[in-house]
Design goal:
Elements lengths: L8 H23 L4 H20 L5 H22 L4 H31 L2
Helix pairs in contact: 1-2, 2-3, 3-4
Length: 119
């Protein structure tokens, strides 16, 4: 059974974090592309987006899929400019981050489903 999305305080906080994360990422990329400040901004935006997804219950697929993509690309961007501009390390960072975040959210859903059966 699919749980419907409702606006709770947690979901409002999550939405605020997602908006701030996307805004910070855009500012970091547009104003400081490839610099140390841009990398730190991208990593901070990555963390804000991830925490925003964690606080959102349930996470709609139309929000989850693009956010996983943005989080993964932010990790790849930070890896590319932090290393010696290694494309291989950047692509690996994107794939590993996408896998971990996707697995984490499917694991959370599975644990919730099993926990509801314990009662």
């Amino acid at each position: 059974m699919k749980k419907s999305f409702t606006w709770t305080l947690s979901n409002l906080f999550a939405t605020l974090l997602l908006v701030l994360g996307v805004g910070l990422l855009l500012v970091a990329l547009l104003m400081s592309f490839g610099t140390r400040i841009g990398i730190e901004g991208a990593v901070t935006a990555l963390v804000l987006l991830l925490v925003g997804l964690i606080f959102m219950h349930p996470v709609p697929l139309k929000v989850l899929a693009p956010m996983i993509g943005i989080i993964s690309l932010s990790a790849g961007y930070a890896t590319y400019f932090s290393s010696q501009h290694s494309w291989l390390a950047s692509i690996l960072a994107i794939l590993i981050t996408a896998g971990i975040v996707s697995y984490g959210f499917s694991l959370r859903r599975t644990l919730k489903r099993r926990h509801s059966q314990w009662y």
